[in-house]
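thoughts on both lines:
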Amino acid sequence: MATHVSNTELRTMQKADLLREMKAQVVMVEKLRLGIRLQKEKDTARYRREKKVLARMQTEWHRKDSADRTSASQS
């Protein structure tokens, strides 16, 4: 993921695309976390920003998932 995805783009993404982006974001956050713990990474603000981006992605994923479940249960 080259740049951060806006909320609007997250809402219009398909679940498969969103899942792929989430996995890439998880890997990035874990690498940053490890780098900070090992004192190789000094930019802790970047780590916090990336965690927030991941949280937005997960929120949108859960919103889409619950919408799918409710529409499936109503059918």
